Each structure stands twice: as structure tokens, then as C-alpha cells.
Amino acid sequence: MEAHSESVHDQVSQRLRKSGLVYTAGRRQLVDLLLQFGRPATVPELLKRGSRLTQSSMYRNLADLEEMKIIHKVSGNDDHARYELTEEFIGHHHHLICVRCGAIDDFVVTSDTEHALDAALARAARSAKFTVSGHRLDALGLCARCKR
Ligand SMILES: [Zn+2]
Ligand SMILES: [Zn+2]
């Protein structure tokens, strides 16, 4: 997802400060990396690009930011844990999941489609007396590389 990095850093910093935590250089680097990827990234991918972060500090910062609900794990089609910033910071979006190589990409649909999805879900959930407050939608298929 495209997100304005300065405003994301501001929001993350505020969130941490409210909890008495500091936006350390390591945490900031990690948020920067996730913004650069613009899609859910695995730990090996993050380590390869974030050469200034050691593996142990990468894991520690991931755990800290996950606990603060600044990032979350995205479940895909394989066993790799992938991380992304939560929608609060990068906006509502969906995932394209490749069933062959496991790659995950972000995608957005038009607001008309979002409204139609919400309306359909609300109708479907009504019989269960369930109030829908949001949705997650993944599309499964083959990525461009695997399709070739
Ligand atoms: Zn693929
Ligand atoms: Zn949606």
C-alpha cells in the first residue's frame, strides 16, 4: 500500500509515546522497511533489506510493534510469517495471495465495491443477528511470475 511515510512516522511515534514508549531508531527503521515494501514482507526479506538491523533486534522490534498493534502478521498460503503495518496506518486494503509461491501483494477496490461488499455482508450476517463492523478479503490465484 502507498502511504505517506512522514505522517505514518508521526502517527506511530504518537501511539508509542501515549504508552510511554520511545520511537527508537530500530523501530523507525523497521517501519521504514515495511513502508518501502508496500506489501506484507517476511522476516528474511526484511533482514536482507535492513542490513543495519541485526536479526535479534529485528525480532525484538517486530514483537514490540506487534504487541502495540502497529504491525500485524498476515496469514497467507504458506508457513512464512509476513508482516505489514495495520490498516490504521496504511489504510483499508485487500491481499492477492499466490497459491503457488506464496507471494502476497496488496490491492484496493473502488469505494463502490467496498460499499457493495459491506452491504452484502450485512445482509448475509443479519440472520445470525451478527453486526458486521468490517471485513477482510483475500483473492487467491497465481501471481504474474507463476503464471508464466
Ligand atoms: Zn507466485
Ligand atoms: Zn474492503
**CATH 2nd-level architecture of the largest domain:** Orthogonal Bundle
What is the radius of gyration computed over CA atoms, rounded to a whole number of angstroms?
A: 17 Å
SSE pattern: HHEHHEEHEEHEH
Q: How many structural units, i.e. domains? A: 2
User: Which small-molecule species are bound to the chains here?
Assistant: zinc ion
Please describe what this structure looks like.
- The chain folds into two domains: 1-91, Winged helix-like DNA-binding domain superfamily/Winged helix DNA-binding domain (Arc Repressor Mutant, subunit A), CATH 1.10.10.10; 92-148, Dna Ligase, domain 1 (2-Layer Sandwich), CATH 3.30.1490.190.
- The chain is an alpha+beta fold.
- The strands form two sheets. Strands 1-3-2 form a three-stranded antiparallel sheet. The protein has a three-stranded mixed sheet with strand order 5-4-6, with no helix packed on it.
- The model has no long low-confidence stretch (mean pLDDT 93).
- The two termini are 25 Å apart.
- Strand 2 and strand 3 form a beta hairpin.
- Helix content is 48%, strand content 16%.
- The chain is globular and about 50 Å long.
- The chain binds zinc ion (2 copies).
- One zinc ion (ZN) binds at residues 92, 94, 114, 117, 135, 137.
